[in-house]
Amino acid sequence: MSEEEAGSGHMAWGIWVPKRPNGRCQWPDEIKVRAVERARGGETIAAIAREISANESLVAQWVKDAEGPAKARKGAPEFVEVLAGDTSARTGAVDHCSIRLGDVELSVPPGYPGAHLTEILRAVRAAR
């Protein structure tokens, strides 16, 4: 007796969707692709989910997965390569680094511990 004959699944868009022993549906890729295409076409995720008897969050996840990592990175800063020029001639010329936060200017000597500088900057920002 096949799964379809046993009734352990259902039809969605003319495609058999079998159920696993744990009760979850094993969604064929063809249905996932169709659902994503319909969502991109403007149909609501809720309507798609109702039509195929799926959970809305599952259909939303299919759409999100189809968008891929490029969508997740949208708006995130891109990598920019920074090349330092020849600094050997200037190495001894600078004895500190100046940081200005509003009306506060900090003069930081070379080799100053970064953790301490971070604490100082946080304190200055909090005091503003």
UniProtKB/TrEMBL annotation:
What does the record list as coiled-coil region(s)? none
Q: Which GO terms describe its biological process?
A: DNA transposition
| Listed name of the protein | Transposase
Highest taxon listed in the record's lineage: Bacteria
User: GO MF terms on file?
Assistant: sequence-specific DNA binding; transposase activity
